[in-house]
């Protein structure tokens, strides 16, 4: 009878670890695909910025170039414009793209180099990094629309505001969900380890 119980327990443990391995492999593939797409997207945005680039060197303010500044060919039109608000939006846009690109490249590098990812905790950290990359891409999209359609009037301004609030709320909810799952997993692992230690102690005393 004891042998049957031990065999069933071992089979359950094997099945659990097998399911965990399948989940980890599926998440590895999903993370690689999403990170590759986002990295390609943000790279294209960097070399093709919103508003285009200057085709020739110019220092004419009527063309949109900042006063007493030479706008060189190949540089961003918005970045070298005389509108300080637009320049600030472009800087935020560039920062979001840089964060998204760096996060995606980090995930790709860890997956390609065979980094040890057989732990759910490590995989969840990579998922969080991937979520940050996605959210930064969404933020860059909002700001790019804002720059191109500046100034936003009427329904477009409300639509952009609601879109931004939607993503902000989604970020908060997803991070809360991940945080709760992480805390639950840590507590579960801690109590499981504690039970194993107490069981070994009881066996040793016996």
UniProtKB/TrEMBL annotation:
Membrane topology: Multi-pass membrane protein
Keyword Nucleotide-binding appears in the UniProt entry: no
Transmembrane segments: 29-47, 92-112, 124-149, 161-184
Superkingdom, natural source: Eukaryota
Alphabetic keyword roster: ANK repeat, Membrane, Repeat, Transmembrane, Transmembrane helix
Ranges where the PGG domain occurs: 22-147
GO cellular component: plasma membrane
Keyword Membrane found: yes
Annotated compartments: Membrane
Family matches, as PANTHER family: PGG DOMAIN-CONTAINING PROTEIN, PROTEIN PHOSPHATASE 1 REGULATORY SUBUNIT
The protein's name in its UniProt record: Uncharacterized protein LOC101494640
Organism for this UniProt entry: Cicer arietinum (Chickpea)
